[in-house]
Design a protein that fits this description.
Layout: E1 4-15, H1 54-66, E2 70-71, E3 74-75, E4 78-81, E5 91-94, E6 101-110, E7 113-126, E8 130-132, E9 141-143, E10 150-156, H2 163-180, E11 192-202, E12 212-217, H3 220-239, E13 247-252, E14 257-263, E15 273-274, E16 281-282, H4 285-292, H5 299-310, H6 314-321, H7 324-336, H8 341-359, H9 370-381, H10 387-397, H11 404-411, H12 419-432, H13 434-441, H14 447-458, H15 465-476
Helix pairs in contact: 2-3, 5-6, 6-8, 7-8, 7-9, 9-10, 12-14, 12-15, 13-14, 14-15
The structure holds adenosine-5'-diphosphate, magnesium ion and zinc ion (ZN).
């Protein structure tokens, strides 16, 4: 196992969130009543003619720019022919030899280590319908609402080297799609899906091993499990003197294993040919360039800026930029007061995330908006209130639209810097916590933090932590 490395390439499908479908004016919306978002075009009635939705091309090019791809200025579409009940036309309009974007590169990080994956191509195509297997219904039903929903397929080069890395990369692609606003990326609605290609080879080898492709992967963590299973399967074949045969396998996430779908001999011949119902389109360079301007600052750029300008750790910068709404919230905070950027990051990743996680909500739903949060942080920064008082104020602010300072005054939370009062508290705490005092004298310096905490508690969060710290250190000498 040690002497082998895993090689992974991904084919990622993302549904685009355009208003209408790719070749007709049917609405592109999920969860509608079965077979009610269809027309002769998307259900492939004879004689119906497709008309390409320009937004789809625009969105694909936006993704191309965001992943550093080159853009083909000639737009060509091809027919991929196959028979399956979810595809009434018996062909999918896709792209074959001229994908709209090609030769790109995506930067991301695994455990803070920078990694790069090359993008082979990004193409536009139409989705197929959905087969429904309903309990109590003997036959398979088909819902054609998804026919003609626009997709981009992102194909990577085989540049990934572990299941963990593949998982992280998929998250990165999702984040980019969210940032550029072209897909809802709802896993549970199937709006982002992927096939994984896995091979193994001796470490240091330059040639690729024979790959197997796995389908029916519904979640990113499922992709990670499928890769681990497949790599182990291939290694055990090799260790037993066997050879890997190229095949397509079906992943079963509940069972945690894959099974053979078809071998290479059974590989389908899609008889690709130029789609005669859609003319070749020459894209204007100016339009392609203009789309570039719609690409916002991307996660990797944000991470670099946060680390450089605000001294955030890479981990914190990554955790903020990973979620688009959270990054916008943080950016708004830093525009109000960039000197408190690090404090804002700590609050966002700490108390605020905890609050949102408990309610399974996004930061958009957080009742305290950046301007009020920053007013609160400024009170801490000016030492008008302590950090622990600020926590209390924030919890009140969730239900009370009053100004933070008004809440502080009303609740009597102004920081207490009265030395005499604080000294009394310090002395009480030292008496009650004699064990901790002993520990401190034995050299356990971190006990000091505990004692400060006890004093803060005694002062009902109002004590000045710096003053308490100084008084404690003096007493303990
Ligand atoms: P196909 O059209 O048959 O699916 P592609 O050339 O488009 O073949 O490759 C599909 C995917 O398989 C790509 O993501 C590519 O990176 C990946 N891939 C190709 N060869 C290997 C290999 N030996 N090991 C792992 N992945 C591979
Ligand atoms: Mg493929
Ligand atoms: Zn239609």
């Amino acid at each position: 196992m040690k002497d082998y490395e895993i090689v992974i390439g991904l084919e990622i499908h993302a549904e685009l969130n355009t208003k209408t479908k790719i070749f007709c004016s049917c609405r592109n919306s999920f969860g509608e009543k079965e077979n009610e978002q269809c027309c002769p075009v998307c259900t492939g009635m004879p004689g119906a003619l497709p008309v390409l939705n320009q937004k789809v091309v625009e969105y694909a090019i936006r993704m191309g720019h965001a992943t550093n791809c080159k853009i083909n200025s000639l737009l060509k579409q091809d027919r991929k022919n196959y028979c399956y009940p979810d595809l009434p036309k018996a062909y999918q309009i896709s792209q074959y030899d001229l994908p709209v974007c090609y030769d790109g590169e995506v930067e991301f990080a695994v455990n803070g280590e920078p990694r790069k994956v090359r993008i082979n191509r990004i193409q536009i195509e139409e989705d197929a319908g959905k087969l429904l297997h309903q309990e109590g219904v003997a036959n398979t039903l088909v819902d054609l609402n998804r026919c003609g929903v626009p997709l981009i397929e992102i194909v990577t080069e085989p540049d990934l080297r572990s299941s963990r890395e593949a998982h992280e990369f998929l998250e990165t692609i999702r984040t980019i799609l969210m940032y550029i606003g072209i897909s809802d990326c709802k896993m549970q609605e199937g709006s982002i899906r992927c096939d994984v290609n896995v091979s193994v080879r001796p470490k240091g080898s330059e040639v690729l091993g024979t790959r197997c492709e796995m389908k029916n992967i519904n979640t990113f963590s499922g992709a990670q499990r499928a890769i681990d299973f497949e790599a182990a399967r291939q290694l055990s074949i090799l260790e037993n003197g066997g050879v890997i045969v190229q095949e397509t396998r079906r992943w079963d996430d509940d069972a945690g294993r894959s099974s053979l779908l078809r071998s290479k001999e059974d590989a389908q011949d899609y008889r690709f040919f130029y789609e005669p119902d859609i003319p070749l389109v020459a894209l204007e360079e100016a339009w392609i360039d203009q789309i570039k301007a719609d690409v916002p600052e991307l996660p990797q750029e944000k991470i670099k800026r946060y680390v450089r300008d605000f001294c955030l750790s890479k981990t914190d910068a990554g955790n903020i930029s990973r979620n688009y709404e959270r990054a916008l919230f943080f950016d708004a905070c830093t525009l109000i007061d960039d000197k408190l950027a690090k404090n804002a990051a700590n609050w966002i990743l700490g108390d605020i995330s905890k609050y949102l996680n408990e309610r399974n909500e996004e930061i958009d739903a957080f009742p305290v908006r950046p301007s009020r949060l920053m007013s609160l942080l400024q009170l801490v920064n000016k030492e008008i209130i302590s950090g622990s008082a600020a926590k209390k104020v924030l919890s009140i602010m969730l239900e009370d639209a009053a100004d933070p300072m008004a809440i502080v005054e009303r609740e009597g939370l102004l920081q207490n810097s009265n030395e005499e009062e604080m000294l009394r508290i310090v002395e009480d705490v030292l008496v009650v916590n004699s064990r901790a005092v002993e520990d401190y004298k034995q050299g356990r310096a971190n006990v000091l933090g505990f004692l400060v905490g006890q004093c803060m508690k005694q002062s009902k969060g109002k004590g000045d932590p710096k003053l308490i710290n100084r008084l404690l250190t003096e007493r303990l000498k």
